[in-house]
Every structure is written in C-alpha cells, then in structure tokens.
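Hello support,

Our group uses your service weekly, and this is the first time we've seen a run hang past the timeout. The protein is DUF1853 family protein. I'm not sure whether the cause is the sequence or the server load. Input pasted verbatim:
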Amino acid sequence: MAPSLMRSAAPSFDALVPAFSASTCSLDVSAVSPAHRRLGLYYEDLIGTLLSGALPCDPLSVRRNVQCAQAGITAGEFDFLYRSTEQWFHLETAVKFYLCCGDGSALEHFVGPGRRDRLDIKWQRLQQHQLRLASHPVGRECLDRLGIRNVHSQLLMPGYLFYRAGAEVPGSTLHREISPRHQQGWWLPLRDLELLPASRDHRYAILSKLRWLAPARLADDQALDWHALREQLVARAGPALVVQLSCVPVSGSRNRWCETGRGFVVPDDWEPTVLESRIQSRRH
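Update from on-call engineer: The timeout came from a worker crash unrelated to the input. Re-ran successfully.
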C-alpha cells in the first residue's frame, strides 16, 4: 500500500491492521467500481473493503461514516471505527495531491492543483478537529451509545507531493512533518512541456481523477506520443495529471505501456497566490 505523506500518520495501511497481509488480503484498485465522483470518497470505499477483508467476519467490527450529533449540535463524523485484537480504533482517511510552490520548508508551500486546498490548512484541520473527535463531548457521547470505550485515533494519509520540474527536490529543507518516504512527482506549466522527452520510447496519458490512485497500465492504442499529449493539453482549461509511460512487451498481444513517473501540467497563468488571497478574504 502507498506510504503516508506525513511522519505522524500511519506509515501505510499494512501498519494499521496486524491481520492484514498483502499476500492474503490484496486489493486490485481497478476491481473496486467507483460509487462516487469524488476521489476522497472512492478512497474511503477502498479502505472499507480492505478493513472488511482484514478483520473478522463480524459486521459490527467495522463502522463507517458515523455521525456525531446531539441536541442539534454536529461535532463531526468518524470516517471509520473498527475493532482489532480487542482494541477499538478511530481511523481518519485522506488522500492528497499537492504541488510544491517553494522550497518545501513550510507546509503552506504545498498547494492543491485546483488552488482550493493547501497542506498546512488540511493538516491543521486534521490535528485540531478530526483526530480529536473522540475526545469531544458529543463524540464521546456517540461512542458511549455504541458501547465503544478507549478509542485510539489514527490517520491514513497517502498521496503525492509534486516538485517543479527541472528544479532540485528539497532534501534537508523539507518540513519536518513530511515523511521522507512520501511519493513524489513533478509539475510544470504548459510552456515548459519541452522538458518532457519526445522520443519514440516515451509515451504519455492524461488520467481522470478517479484513476489517480493506482499506477497506470495502458494498451498500445491508449498511449499518447509527445505531440498528441501537447494537443490535448492545449485544449484543456485546467491542470492535468500526466503519467509518463515505458513499453513492456507482452507475449502474444499488443504492447503494454506502464507508468514510470507522473506530474501535473498546469496552465501558464496558474498562480498559487490566488489561493492565498481567497484564504485571506475568508478570514476577514
């Protein structure tokens, strides 16, 4: 399973449930049909499937999306409550993709491709609200109704951090909360697309959002050469997640193209300062 973006989150799903084993409880992401258009909800579906497969066949051992409300007061929602080895856990999940627009020394340097999200804001929300729900009076009352005691809160937060193509990836300057094992990619404005190789050995694809979680594997006729990629990107209005592909010969069939890297291509006028102005306007 994909590693976490943050040091203080669970390293991966494997580390959460002792009973989980990649050899006995593996999950093909493509085999789980998306029931939602939002990537975060699709990711929750995948985690729910994994938890149900890894834990005993007790329907009450895993509870999902438990609302915490009392007398008209809504404190929040538990993404998951699950029981493993006689211990109850509260699991929050998030899968995030951020572009680094600085030297990586501050969490605010990491901005979502749609400029509506930022890592420091998300991290503060998780730490100060979502992961503290079990200790909130309404959250505790909700757990009491379910007969759940001594809950241990956990966070699962995989994803990618993307660094400007052609620039040095931050090392010692990277913010201390970011895990050194996080998955990395690149980003560039459309005007710098020439930084991507255009030889016959390289192919590309633009992934729709619900395909961002798994490494891409495409048939020969689905892969784009550099010129076809540029043509499609010019016709788009917003950021696009592009995967780089290499050919893997498959006996008895057409070539298969497998992902070797990924990154965001953004419009030339994409500016992270737009997000900052929106945040400031909400504060006043």
